[in-house]
Amino acid sequence: MAKCFFIPMTTPREQIYSALLTVLQSALLSPAGPFKTVGRRWQDPSQLSPADRPALYQVQKDELAKTSNINSIPITWRATVDLVLYSTGDTSPATIPSTELNSLLDAVEAAIKSAAPGLAQSLGGKVSHCRIEGKIEIVENVQGAMALAVVPVEILLTA
Hints:
The longest helix is centred in the N-terminal third of the chain and has 16 residues, at 13-28. The chain has two helices and six strands, in the order αβββαβββ.
């Protein structure tokens, strides 16, 4: 009879997602950073007041376990998170919505990089790496003058 068992992640999920949020808040939340809102509870753009923008929301997306037929090789976990960014939404006809969004994207990229050049962002040693990975979706003119970006973040760890 074959036995099936579940091997959990080495670090509890909530600690990982909380660590990422802490990294983002410390680097990006006003007054130190450009965002007025950084959180995990996604808000529809129609629910955002101008006083809450620009805003960034960390949204859990999925997890993938990669296993091996060899028992001694640990499971590799790949978790993905979307960072949803909304710009301020200047209504001036001379304003290009993506101009502000580009500087917000640069700030997010810098926040996720490790403080030590050449080393992976490990969220305080909780994961192997945490980095932007994949296509960044950009939409201009959301709810009038706002711009939106969805930044995919990959988190890798072994069990």
